[in-house]
Amino acid sequence: MTTLAPSQQHVCDAIVSAWPYCSLFHLWSSSGCGRSTLLQQLHQQFGGIVLSPTDFVTDQIGRESTALEDTIFCVIRRALERADVVLIDDWQLLANVVSGCGDSYPRTGYLDAVSEAIAELVLASGKKLLISSDRSLPDPISVRCYAMGFSEFNVVDYEYLCGEFGGDSSASLDYGKIHRFAPRLNGYQLRKACEYAARENTWDTESVLDYLREQELASNVQISEVATSSFEDLIGVDDVLASLTKHIVLPLENDDLALELDLHPKRGVLLLGPPGTGKTTIGKALAHRLKGKFFLIDGTVISGTESFYHKISWIFAEARDNAPSVIFIDDSDVIFENRKEHGLYRYLLTKLDGLEGKSNGRVCVILTAMELQHIPPALMRSGRVELWLQMGYPDRPARHEVLRRLTAALPDKYATFDLSVAANLSDGCSGADLKRLVNDAKALLAWDLHQQIGPRPFTEYFEEALTAFHEQRANYAVAEERGRQRGDRPVWFDVPTSAHRPTPAELT
Question: Which stretches of 61-137 are DSSP H helices?
């Protein structure tokens, strides 16, 4: 007989103990936890017929596409006529066909009627029927059956399965650390991790964790498509980065301290600040740092229709499965600006409260916002958003450093740039503004070169770009004030004190 992992063996023993007293059995587990292996073990012990989806698909050939329930009943009835024990593998694949059709299916609810007939047939015949699936069965069967299963492997299972897949070499791994890092790996993922370690001859815990982080943990973000960024790219927000490191990154990355002190990341974090101050850059840095443990909700997820509910539900479910993890909700105030957005914020309230459970305690939700007024107050309740971090405009030393980095690649013959002057003149500019100003100055320089005009010092081009920038801000401020006078919705932009502000005469 095939040997089983401890959790599998526990389920098998429970079913064997109940076998003499019950006729209907439900064997359940998450995908990849060895249900088929367990079912085969029970088949070896009790005999009978094993039915797989192939048997139902084969019998369905030539039938009406809406007659799957008929096929299910006929196949099971014939099997019960031939044997005293019938075991069905992967029932959820059959149920998905019916439930996936939604209200358009012409025989909605008919599977329940078929399930009732199957249950009565089994009970009347005195035979045994065991169904394996990754979810609950129809009520007519579930209320009559003995159900046993497990949702995920524990640390002892990890050690057993890796020993099976990797042999003696796997004994050097710290399975407690691996399980804390990724507590919901299935058998397929553990096998691939062991195959990787054997192929690369890297049987050490950190290498396995790196492999899992890169290859096996799901995210809704393609890291290769996210601009490379790190905390070091953010200048002038050291206090914010220090708080994020202490309250988010440290509990996620330092497993030893997290275990010793029972550390958990903050459940909810708000990054509040004007546009261009680095809120999204923090998200990019976290995406690269956490990889498969980073999940993004932004405007591409909130599409303006109710279809986003299943997307958000999937994101939260995957974050829980990959915990410890981060859900990053970018520009949350823009998302919540329309309070009638199909009740999205109420849905998120439910999800945030759902993170209170033990299995969800290592999921952190980070929201970015430019204005607090558009965020529903209920989200800010204590226990949901636990940490507020203010993102501001960089001070003079920070602007000096940002400008130095932005112009470091200028050819020497054009690098006539007075950083001190530029840092003084750009008071009130964000990091994104400084990047734009440097690019605008480069464009002005390029135009002169194209016109075969001798280049001026780069500082002059920067000053010219800054003048145009302030004029644009002043025009925006005029339009903003007119919109307010007409009663239009507020905007999120604040003009810094150093920028030109319109006079009363300009406003009229």
Answer: 68-82, 91-99, 110-125
Helix/strand/coil for 28? strand
Look at residues 132, 255, 285 and name the one whose alpha carbon lies nearest to residue 183.
Answer: 255
- Give the other-Cβ count within 10 Å of 46's Cβ: 15
For the question of whether the overall pTM of this predicted structure is more than 0.90, the answer is no
- 1: Cβ contacts below 8 Å, ≥ 6 apart: 41, 44, 45
Domain at 6-150: CATH code? 3.40.50.300
CA distance 181 to 175: 10
Amino acid in position 322? N
Which H/E stretch holds residue 258?
Answer: helix 255-261
- Cross-strand pairs, 27: 132, 148
Residue type, 424: N
SS (H, E, C) 288-338: HHHHHHEEEECCCCCCCCCCHHHHHHHHHHHHHHCCCEEEEECCHHHHHCC
Class of domain 223-376: alpha beta
Tens of pLDDT, residues 161-175 = 998 888 888 888 889
Q: Which helix (H) or strand (E) holds 7?
A: helix 6-18
| Arch. (CATH architecture) of 396-485 | Orthogonal Bundle (1.10)
Q: What are phi and psi of 131, to 5 degrees?
A: -120, 130
> For residue 324, is the peptide bond before it cis, meaning its omega torsion is within 30 degrees of 0?
yes
What's the pLDDT tens digit per position in 61-79? Answer: 888 777 788 899 999 999 9
